[in-house]
Amino acid sequence: MNRSAISLLTLLLALPVVGHTDLRLYVFDCGIIDMQDISSFSLSNDESPVRQLFVPCYLVEHDDQQMIWDAGLPNAIAGQGTIDQGGGMSMSLDTSLIEQLETLELSAADIDLVAFSHMHFDHVGAANLFTNARLLIQDTEYAAAFEEPDNPYFQPDLYMGLKDNEREILSGDYDVFGDGSVTIVSAPGHTPGHQVLLLQLENSGPLVLSGDLYHFAESRALRRAPEFNFDAEQTFSSMDKVEALIKAEGAILWIEHEKALADTLNMAPAFYD
Q: What integer pLDDT is reported at residue 20 of this predicted model?
Protein backbone atom coordinates (compact mmCIF):
# COMPACT_ATOMS: atom_id res chain seq x y z
CA MET A 1 0.00 0.00 0.00
CA ASN A 2 1.50 3.36 -1.00
CA ARG A 3 1.86 6.37 1.28
CA SER A 4 -1.14 8.26 -0.11
CA ALA A 5 -3.39 5.24 0.45
CA ILE A 6 -2.18 4.91 4.04
CA SER A 7 -2.79 8.64 4.63
CA LEU A 8 -6.34 8.35 3.31
CA LEU A 9 -7.11 5.32 5.47
CA THR A 10 -5.76 7.21 8.48
CA LEU A 11 -8.07 10.12 7.65
CA LEU A 12 -11.09 7.86 7.28
CA LEU A 13 -10.42 6.11 10.58
CA ALA A 14 -10.22 9.50 12.30
CA LEU A 15 -13.55 10.69 10.93
CA PRO A 16 -16.63 10.64 13.14
CA VAL A 17 -18.98 7.73 12.73
CA VAL A 18 -21.77 8.77 10.40
CA GLY A 19 -25.02 9.12 12.31
CA HIS A 20 -28.44 9.55 10.77
CA THR A 21 -27.93 11.69 7.69
CA ASP A 22 -30.38 12.15 4.87
CA LEU A 23 -27.89 11.43 2.07
CA ARG A 24 -29.14 10.87 -1.45
CA LEU A 25 -27.39 10.52 -4.80
CA TYR A 26 -29.17 11.44 -8.03
CA VAL A 27 -27.77 10.46 -11.43
CA PHE A 28 -28.44 12.49 -14.58
CA ASP A 29 -27.84 11.64 -18.23
CA CYS A 30 -25.56 14.47 -19.37
CA GLY A 31 -24.61 13.13 -22.77
CA ILE A 32 -22.97 10.51 -24.95
CA ILE A 33 -19.57 10.57 -26.66
CA ASP A 34 -19.14 8.27 -29.68
CA MET A 35 -15.72 7.40 -31.09
CA GLN A 36 -14.31 5.15 -33.77
CA ASP A 37 -10.86 4.66 -32.24
CA ILE A 38 -9.99 4.13 -28.57
CA SER A 39 -6.22 3.79 -28.95
CA SER A 40 -5.59 7.14 -27.23
CA PHE A 41 -6.90 5.49 -24.05
CA SER A 42 -3.97 3.03 -24.25
CA LEU A 43 -6.36 0.28 -25.35
CA SER A 44 -6.20 -1.34 -28.74
CA ASN A 45 -9.42 -1.44 -30.70
CA ASP A 46 -9.35 -5.22 -30.29
CA GLU A 47 -9.18 -5.07 -26.49
CA SER A 48 -12.62 -3.51 -26.03
CA PRO A 49 -15.72 -3.42 -28.23
CA VAL A 50 -16.93 -0.25 -26.47
CA ARG A 51 -17.11 2.88 -28.61
CA GLN A 52 -19.52 4.96 -26.52
CA LEU A 53 -18.84 6.85 -23.32
CA PHE A 54 -21.72 7.79 -21.05
CA VAL A 55 -21.40 11.29 -19.60
CA PRO A 56 -23.02 11.64 -16.15
CA CYS A 57 -23.84 14.46 -13.80
CA TYR A 58 -24.65 13.86 -10.15
CA LEU A 59 -26.52 15.64 -7.40
CA VAL A 60 -25.53 14.82 -3.82
CA GLU A 61 -28.24 15.82 -1.36
CA HIS A 62 -27.04 15.98 2.24
CA ASP A 63 -29.81 17.00 4.64
CA ASP A 64 -30.64 20.50 3.38
CA GLN A 65 -27.48 21.00 1.29
CA GLN A 66 -27.11 20.29 -2.42
CA MET A 67 -23.84 19.50 -4.21
CA ILE A 68 -23.24 18.98 -7.92
CA TRP A 69 -20.51 16.49 -8.81
CA ASP A 70 -19.51 16.76 -12.49
CA ALA A 71 -21.54 18.81 -14.95
CA GLY A 72 -21.53 16.88 -18.22
CA LEU A 73 -21.17 17.96 -21.83
CA PRO A 74 -21.42 21.62 -22.86
CA ASN A 75 -24.85 22.98 -22.08
CA ALA A 76 -25.03 24.74 -25.45
CA ILE A 77 -25.33 21.48 -27.39
CA ALA A 78 -28.44 20.30 -25.51
CA GLY A 79 -31.17 19.30 -27.96
CA GLN A 80 -28.96 19.97 -30.99
CA GLY A 81 -28.65 16.35 -32.11
CA THR A 82 -25.30 14.73 -32.88
CA ILE A 83 -22.35 17.13 -33.02
CA ASP A 84 -19.41 15.98 -35.14
CA GLN A 85 -16.12 16.75 -33.38
CA GLY A 86 -13.91 15.46 -36.16
CA GLY A 87 -11.32 12.72 -35.83
CA GLY A 88 -14.01 10.07 -35.66
CA MET A 89 -15.63 11.52 -32.52
CA SER A 90 -19.11 12.95 -32.00
CA MET A 91 -21.22 13.92 -29.01
CA SER A 92 -24.83 14.53 -28.11
CA LEU A 93 -26.85 15.82 -25.17
CA ASP A 94 -30.61 15.40 -25.21
CA THR A 95 -31.60 17.42 -22.12
CA SER A 96 -29.63 20.08 -20.27
CA LEU A 97 -28.66 19.56 -16.66
CA ILE A 98 -30.71 22.57 -15.58
CA GLU A 99 -33.85 21.08 -17.16
CA GLN A 100 -33.16 17.80 -15.38
CA LEU A 101 -32.71 19.60 -12.05
CA GLU A 102 -36.10 21.21 -12.60
CA THR A 103 -37.69 17.76 -12.40
CA LEU A 104 -36.55 17.81 -8.75
CA GLU A 105 -37.91 21.34 -8.34
CA LEU A 106 -34.37 22.70 -8.12
CA SER A 107 -32.67 25.56 -9.94
CA ALA A 108 -29.00 26.42 -10.29
CA ALA A 109 -29.42 28.95 -7.47
CA ASP A 110 -30.37 26.13 -5.09
CA ILE A 111 -26.97 24.42 -5.41
CA ASP A 112 -24.75 25.08 -2.40
CA LEU A 113 -21.57 23.28 -3.47
CA VAL A 114 -20.04 22.32 -6.79
CA ALA A 115 -17.10 19.99 -7.37
CA PHE A 116 -15.73 18.36 -10.48
CA SER A 117 -13.62 15.26 -10.77
CA HIS A 118 -11.53 17.43 -13.11
CA MET A 119 -11.94 20.31 -15.51
CA HIS A 120 -12.11 18.58 -18.91
CA PHE A 121 -14.92 19.74 -21.19
CA ASP A 122 -17.13 16.69 -20.65
CA HIS A 123 -17.18 17.23 -16.87
CA VAL A 124 -17.76 21.00 -16.70
CA GLY A 125 -20.23 21.57 -19.53
CA ALA A 126 -22.84 23.23 -17.31
CA ALA A 127 -20.39 24.67 -14.78
CA ASN A 128 -21.14 28.32 -15.53
CA LEU A 129 -24.69 27.88 -14.27
CA PHE A 130 -23.55 27.50 -10.66
CA THR A 131 -22.19 30.94 -9.85
CA ASN A 132 -23.81 30.95 -6.39
CA ALA A 133 -22.21 27.69 -5.27
CA ARG A 134 -19.02 27.18 -3.28
CA LEU A 135 -16.37 25.57 -5.50
CA LEU A 136 -14.38 22.64 -4.07
CA ILE A 137 -11.21 22.14 -6.12
CA GLN A 138 -7.67 20.86 -5.61
CA ASP A 139 -4.97 23.55 -5.59
CA THR A 140 -3.16 21.97 -8.56
CA GLU A 141 -6.37 21.78 -10.62
CA TYR A 142 -7.26 25.37 -9.77
CA ALA A 143 -3.84 26.54 -10.97
CA ALA A 144 -4.07 24.56 -14.21
CA ALA A 145 -7.65 25.64 -14.95
CA PHE A 146 -7.69 29.28 -13.85
CA GLU A 147 -4.06 30.42 -13.94
CA GLU A 148 -2.86 28.74 -17.16
CA PRO A 149 -5.23 30.05 -19.86
CA ASP A 150 -3.27 28.35 -22.64
CA ASN A 151 -3.68 24.87 -21.17
CA PRO A 152 -4.57 22.83 -24.29
CA TYR A 153 -6.61 20.25 -22.38
CA PHE A 154 -9.06 22.67 -20.75
CA GLN A 155 -11.79 24.85 -22.27
CA PRO A 156 -11.99 27.91 -19.98
CA ASP A 157 -15.15 29.37 -21.52
CA LEU A 158 -17.07 26.45 -20.00
CA TYR A 159 -16.14 27.27 -16.39
CA MET A 160 -14.73 30.79 -16.16
CA GLY A 161 -18.08 31.93 -14.79
CA LEU A 162 -16.92 30.34 -11.52
CA LYS A 163 -13.81 32.51 -11.16
CA ASP A 164 -15.48 34.78 -8.58
CA ASN A 165 -17.26 32.00 -6.67
CA GLU A 166 -16.53 31.38 -3.04
CA ARG A 167 -14.14 28.48 -3.06
CA GLU A 168 -12.39 25.91 -0.94
CA ILE A 169 -8.92 25.22 -2.34
CA LEU A 170 -8.01 21.66 -1.36
CA SER A 171 -4.61 20.08 -0.97
CA GLY A 172 -5.66 16.45 -0.56
CA ASP A 173 -8.61 14.47 0.73
CA TYR A 174 -11.53 16.46 2.10
CA ASP A 175 -14.52 15.58 4.30
CA VAL A 176 -17.19 17.63 2.54
CA PHE A 177 -19.84 17.84 5.25
CA GLY A 178 -17.67 17.16 8.30
CA ASP A 179 -19.39 13.89 9.21
CA GLY A 180 -17.60 11.31 7.05
CA SER A 181 -20.58 10.77 4.75
CA VAL A 182 -19.02 12.32 1.63
CA THR A 183 -15.28 12.49 1.01
CA ILE A 184 -13.44 14.03 -1.91
CA VAL A 185 -10.40 11.83 -2.53
CA SER A 186 -7.38 13.35 -4.24
CA ALA A 187 -6.38 11.14 -7.18
CA PRO A 188 -4.10 13.15 -9.50
CA GLY A 189 -2.69 11.97 -12.78
CA HIS A 190 -5.45 12.25 -15.36
CA THR A 191 -5.19 15.98 -14.70
CA PRO A 192 -3.03 17.77 -12.10
CA GLY A 193 -5.80 17.84 -9.50
CA HIS A 194 -8.09 14.98 -10.49
CA GLN A 195 -10.28 13.68 -7.65
CA VAL A 196 -12.85 10.96 -6.98
CA LEU A 197 -15.83 10.91 -4.62
CA LEU A 198 -16.60 8.45 -1.80
CA LEU A 199 -20.18 8.34 -0.48
CA GLN A 200 -21.37 6.40 2.56
CA LEU A 201 -24.92 5.58 1.49
CA GLU A 202 -27.06 4.00 4.20
CA ASN A 203 -28.95 1.52 2.05
CA SER A 204 -26.80 1.23 -1.07
CA GLY A 205 -23.54 1.06 0.88
CA PRO A 206 -20.18 2.75 0.25
CA LEU A 207 -19.80 3.99 -3.32
CA VAL A 208 -16.89 5.54 -5.21
CA LEU A 209 -17.49 7.73 -8.26
CA SER A 210 -14.42 7.28 -10.44
CA GLY A 211 -14.13 10.55 -12.31
CA ASP A 212 -11.75 9.65 -15.13
CA LEU A 213 -9.46 7.44 -13.09
CA TYR A 214 -10.82 4.81 -15.48
CA HIS A 215 -12.84 5.28 -18.67
CA PHE A 216 -13.56 1.64 -19.53
CA ALA A 217 -13.89 -1.54 -17.50
CA GLU A 218 -10.84 -2.73 -19.46
CA SER A 219 -8.87 0.32 -18.28
CA ARG A 220 -9.25 -1.00 -14.75
CA ALA A 221 -8.77 -4.68 -15.53
CA LEU A 222 -5.67 -4.08 -17.68
CA ARG A 223 -4.36 -1.12 -15.65
CA ARG A 224 -4.07 1.32 -18.53
CA ALA A 225 -3.58 5.10 -18.39
CA PRO A 226 -4.66 7.16 -21.42
CA GLU A 227 -1.92 8.64 -23.56
CA PHE A 228 -3.30 12.12 -22.89
CA ASN A 229 -3.10 11.91 -19.09
CA PHE A 230 -1.16 14.65 -17.35
CA ASP A 231 1.13 12.22 -15.48
CA ALA A 232 1.07 8.43 -15.95
CA GLU A 233 3.08 7.70 -12.80
CA GLN A 234 0.67 9.76 -10.69
CA THR A 235 -2.23 7.99 -12.38
CA PHE A 236 -0.98 4.55 -11.38
CA SER A 237 -0.32 5.73 -7.81
CA SER A 238 -3.87 7.08 -7.68
CA MET A 239 -5.21 3.77 -8.98
CA ASP A 240 -3.39 2.01 -6.12
CA LYS A 241 -4.77 4.48 -3.59
CA VAL A 242 -8.37 4.22 -4.77
CA GLU A 243 -8.27 0.43 -5.10
CA ALA A 244 -6.99 0.23 -1.51
CA LEU A 245 -9.83 2.52 -0.44
CA ILE A 246 -12.41 0.39 -2.24
CA LYS A 247 -11.10 -2.73 -0.50
CA ALA A 248 -10.93 -1.10 2.93
CA GLU A 249 -14.43 0.37 2.66
CA GLY A 250 -16.04 -2.60 0.93
CA ALA A 251 -17.15 -0.04 -1.64
CA ILE A 252 -18.59 -0.37 -5.12
CA LEU A 253 -16.83 1.56 -7.89
CA TRP A 254 -18.89 3.25 -10.56
CA ILE A 255 -16.78 3.96 -13.64
CA GLU A 256 -18.54 7.16 -14.58
CA HIS A 257 -18.14 6.82 -18.36
CA GLU A 258 -19.11 3.13 -18.52
CA LYS A 259 -22.21 2.95 -20.72
CA ALA A 260 -22.99 -0.65 -19.75
CA LEU A 261 -23.12 0.42 -16.09
CA ALA A 262 -25.19 3.52 -16.86
CA ASP A 263 -27.77 1.39 -18.63
CA THR A 264 -28.42 -0.42 -15.33
CA LEU A 265 -28.72 2.71 -13.15
CA ASN A 266 -31.87 4.48 -12.05
CA MET A 267 -31.77 8.02 -13.38
CA ALA A 268 -33.24 11.03 -11.56
CA PRO A 269 -35.79 11.64 -10.19
CA ALA A 270 -35.01 8.21 -8.76
CA PHE A 271 -32.14 8.23 -6.26
CA TYR A 272 -29.71 6.10 -4.29
CA ASP A 273 -29.56 6.40 -0.52
A: 46
